[in-house]
Amino acid sequence: MIPVCHLADLPAGESVRLDTTPPIAVFNADGELYAIDDTCTHQDASLADGWLEGCLVECPLHAASFDLRTGAPTCLPARRPVRTHPVTVEDGMVYVHRTAEEDTAA
Amino acid sequence: MKSVTVIGASLAGLYAARALRAQGYDGRLTIVGAEPHRPYDRPPLSKEFLTAPATAEGDADPAAEGPLALTDTEELAGLDAEWLLGTRATALDTRHRAVRLDTGRTLTTDGVVLATGAAPRRLPGPAPDGSHTLRTLDDARALRADLARGGPTRVVVIGGGFIGAEVAASCAALGHQVAVVEAAPLPLVPQLGESMAELCARLHGDHGVALLTGTGVRGLRAGADGRVTAVELADGRLLSADVVVTGIGVRPATDWLEGSGLPLGDGVRCDAGCVTPIPAIVAAGDVAHVAGARAEHWTSATEQAATAVHNLLAGRTARTHRALPYFWSDQYGVRIQFAGHRRSGDVPRIIEGSPDDRSFLARYERDGRTTALLALNRPRPFARLRRELARATQPAPTG
């Protein structure tokens, strides 16, 4: 369980990047919190820097888009999903529960 | 239309093939590629690929799997195309709609997508061992192997444009001693304008890379073993070099179209819909000169392919390519992003961040309107303003 930040520090539309290995991006999409692997599966870019629209985040480099709920790419150039991680809030703190590496989608 | 041939199996060619199937074309599809590889992504070749150890990939073809691969077996099955890789188109007979190949085979086809890309410009004179250009996967492998020959190497990069700067940054990251030679008084002025180009040029010095500007290159010197030893500058100076990389731009690959009757001139001349004067022949990517301009951008190649295919299937220019130009460059750990139509005389204004931190966002203005954007390490605000600029400058799609 990785502490992220206070919920108040992650308002709707914002994101934060965790320097884990591999890095994880945590999003507040209109009040719902999501965590995914931060690196776009197409090329080296941080999805935490991406454009958030509803439940989709668009890569800042080539506009690949991922569904935050499933990690699935919704358009090219990405073809492989990113891992998703459960997020909880306890006493106003946001936590990420990292999904094991073995669960990585092929 | 019962058969379409795509000439070029890189980004624009692959995206054209995808667009054909996505737009409902179910006829015969043939893709001709001069390189032996499946479509792969070129941008990492000057960056991550060059700095990664060759041993990491083992015997695998980096174009077929891993971060460079643009497609996979599952998609290839779905595209249902005949791939003629390692095969060069040598002539196009527009009257009979026939493509001649270097294998001796001739393909007769209803529609043609020209996506042959571009080839690096080379210095006149012989190219000794140790001198490189960087365009293809095989180029990058050869350069990477040369850089790994042992110990720190003296690298001279000829040309201070984006490719040159990225190669210089990668070589510096590998611990080599690097110098960049640029003929103009300052690199990247045509792309960024003088003041912003000056800020980007500082990145070289930040990382111990010498930038020599305002001097051309007379030629390369080689030793008795045929390996490069030095770069001779136009002013007579000699720069010792173990490895030389020339990045002085590209020429659109249109030699094979000489005599085809298609209008050529810095690429294949097309209208705003990527259509040549023959509606069944369209072009996309680096080879396409669309409505008076030729882009060499990753994003343009993908967007033009969709537009070109739409019009090919429509049999006329039903849609035009109007997307906002966008490109990026990663060098020395700094992500440079640019979008828009900058013209000479547009005034850049830094609206966020600081050049001293090598992190800022600038807006180019003309007559009080934003024409273009430049960001160094500011991807989020850049993305927001890029969208605003696209909305402000593009007419809303109709119908």
Automatic annotation (TrEMBL), chain A:
Record-level Gene Ontology MF annotations: 2 iron, 2 sulfur cluster binding; 3-phenylpropionate dioxygenase activity; metal ion binding; monooxygenase activity
Under SUPFAM superfamilies, the record lists:
ISP domain (SSF50022)
Q: Which domain of life is it from?
A: Bacteria
Q: Which UniProt keywords apply?
A: 2Fe-2S, Dioxygenase, Iron, Iron-sulfur, Metal-binding, Oxidoreductase
EC number annotated for this UniProt entry: 1.14.12.19
Alphabetical list of InterPro entries matching this protein: Rieske_2Fe-2S, Rieske_2Fe-2S_sf
Q: Where are the transmembrane segments?
A: none
Q: Which Gene3D superfamilies match?
A: Rieske [2Fe-2S] iron-sulphur domain
**Any idea where the Rieske domain is?**
2-96
Q: Does the keyword Chloroplast apply?
A: no
Q: Which Pfam families match?
A: Rieske
Q: Does the keyword Zinc-finger apply?
A: no
Q: Which NCBIfam families match?
A: PRK09965.1 (NF007422)
Protein name per Swiss-Prot or TrEMBL: 3-phenylpropionate/trans-cinnamate dioxygenase ferredoxin subunit
Protein species of origin: Streptomyces yunnanensis
Per the UniProt record, the lineage of the source organism begins with: Bacteria, Bacillati, Actinomycetota, Actinomycetes, Kitasatosporales
